[in-house]
Here is the input.
Amino acid sequence: MRLEFTSDLPVDAEQAFAWHTRPGAFARLVPPWQRVRLLGDHPGIADGSIARLELRLGPIRQHWVARHRDVVAGRQFVDEQISGPFAIWHHAHRFEPLDDRRCRLVDDISCTLPAGPLGGLAAGTIRRSVSRAFRYRHAVTAADLAFHAGFREHPRITVAMTGASGLVGRMVAAMLTTAGHRVIPLVRGHPGPGERRWTPGATLDPATFLGVDAVVHLAGESIASGRWSAARKAAIRTSRIAGTTTLVDAILKANPRPAVFVGASATGYYGDRGDHPVTEAEPPGRGFLGDLAAEWEGAARPLAAGGVRTVTTRFGIVLSPAGGALRAMLPPFQLGAGGRLGSGNQWMSWVSIDDCAAAVVWALLGDLHGPVNVTAPEPVTNRQFTETLGRVLRRPTLMAVPAAVLRLALGELADEALLTGARVLPGVLTASGYQFRHPGLKGALRHVLGRAAR
Here is the structure.
């Protein structure tokens, strides 16, 4: 089987080649609907370097070992399977100059399925699966390189990051490292190579920030993992307030201090606002989430007074099948049992995972400060979201979950996070010139679910 995929990229061949060789490229290129992970550290791209992967399909795990060869800096490299799911896999990555500012990316794949004639029966399915993945890869590559080109003159920086292994953190770290920046994950367990340790609520040594130019703080307990008991609400609050305070105290004592702090918050800050459009100028809403977000953001406020440029990113619903709300929604929708929640009239302010990560990097490398709504410019109601997801998946959406059932199952969480909402607009991002990759819901869902047009 022979497959070839081509795209014209808005950078020269050397820059496109370099992007592929950096650690974050693997995370950026693996489609979020696939369960693939790199075993060990990124091996780099050099003749003879070995990449070891684990692929999961339900309960089945398959290891894939590939060797890089025929590396020509700035022009090409080849991945060749040593062991794995194919009888033969040969993947040539070529970067063909078009002029001094553009190049053509060519992915040239030759593969043979195992089991002879029996394996040939699956050729059509494999071809469609590989084509789906490479359409996604090329879209991400072109968009990321165009985004990075806007910061070409920005100095390369070192960023300390909490939550670097989370849904958003993985993509933020990957976007930074593919641009040549360095990311130091702050971890709560035993730190591995290139990591540093921190413990929320405990004293943090200011030396943790030695050589650090900026801090991105994304760690926090999930609000959607079950009913909100008193103990659960306390744990959610502590993870956010104590964690932020720990970092702030150490940053203010560091010499020199990191110049920038980007901290997470959420659109729950605004509470239930009905149909009223909401921008960053709005005050906090009422309820647990509004109070929590206001206190969370307030914990970082001393940094601004201490001369650290401080940005608070208020995340909407982040769309990715790899985690979060969309991952939880997919099983019933794929079975044709999806539907609206309650009346369906509550607003859902969403953002694709790619725009979410890019907005954090935009805030970090740009000159933003204060609260920033990280939401797409076209929020939708729950009813509209349901219908759009059904159309993308080609499934009916006739079901509905009554509000009473949600309240019985989830209590306060249902009323604050599922049955109410706010029509949040990205006022600061838009005014700063940020260009959304996925301004509309249908395009965003088609991208993250691999349902884009051929």
Q: What stands out?
A: The first helix runs from residue 13 to 21. The radius of gyration is 23 Å. The longest strand covers residues 60-72. Residues 301 and 310 are 8 Å apart (CA to CA).
